Amino acid sequence: MKRINAILPILGLTVLLLNSCIEHEVIPPPIPQVELDCYFDGLVNNVPLTLTQNVGGVSGTAAKAQNIMPPPTFSSERYFFTMSSDQTPRSITVGLGSVFWDGATETQPTVSQFNNFHKNTLTPNFSNSALNGFEVKYVDVLGNEWVSDENSTNFQDVTFSNVKLEADASGEYSLFDCTFDCYVYFTDPITSNVDSMRVQGTNLKGWFKR
After folding, report:
1. Which residues are paired to 101 by β-bridges?
2. Degrees (nearest 5) of the Cα angle 13, 17, 19?
3. Are 143 and 166 within 8 A, CB to CB?
4. What is the distance in angstroms between the CA of the first residue and the CA of the last residue of the chain?
5. Which residue in 25, 28, 195, 202 has the most C-beta neighbors within 10 A?
6. Among 31, 29, 28, 30, which Cα is nearest to 168's?
7. How does residue 27 score in pLDDT terms, banded at 50, 70 and 90?
8. Sequence-ordered list of residues with C-beta below 8 angstroms from that of 43, at least 6 positions apart, any chain
9. DSSP character for 22?
10. Phi-psi region for residue 117, left (φ > 0), alpha (ψ -120 to 50) or beta?
């Protein structure tokens, strides 16, 4: 009985030492991540077209184009968003520009400049290459590019809404909804003949990235 009583404190001390050696897993807090959702539907040449993220290989991508100028001329930046699929050439791209900033002091527009531009550019004019406004590019199933024209005499209109700035570790985003109605044009590379068709009744949900 005395022997058992002597062993018990030793066992208790051993268990205590083992518990103190166990490293407890530290679970880091979740990293904030912007939820990037995209969707498009509308009529293209009177034929319904719907593109839904993660359906049929569809995804959304954002891009930008810079024009860096020496001082005292301001540099400029344009933003583009594309919905495309890895299963078909068909895609839709919208572009919006331009933000102007001093390229001699910053490599890109500040967050405030980026946010203010998108918040205040809700009904832009159409502009070729999105240099000073809005542009639409549609790629058909044959891979032909149909692009809006700032000089079009046909009806064209665009409205951005629900514009919201969000950010995470990967950067700053301007989330938006967009509706537009316009004609897009295709120039035959062989005959130089120009054809047109209307894109209308659209609803586009996407984002631009700083």
Report:
1. 75
2. 115
3. no
4. 77
5. 202
6. 31
7. confident
8. 49, 198, 199, 200, 201, 202
9. P
10. alpha
Q: How far apart are alpha carbons 35 and 48 in whole angstroms?
A: 27
Amino acid at 50: T
State whether the Cα torsion 166-168-172-177 is positive or negative: negative
Residue with tokens 């100028």: 69
Q: Which two tokens stand for residue 198?
A: 């209307």
Q: Looking at residue 30, what is its pLDDT?
A: 66
E-state strands within 24-103: 39-44, 47-52, 58-67, 75-85, 88-101
Amino acid, res. 195: D
The pLDDT tens digits of the residues spanning 100-116 come to 999 989 999 999 999 99
Question: Do residues 207 and 164 touch, judged by C-beta distance below 8 A?
Answer: no
* Length reported for the chain: 210
Overall pTM > 0.90: no
Q: Residue 25 contacts by C-beta under 8 Å, 6 or more apart in sequence?
A: none
* CA neighbor of 54 nearest in space, from 35, 39, 34, 41: 39
Other Cβ atoms within 10 Å of 125 Cβ, number? 11
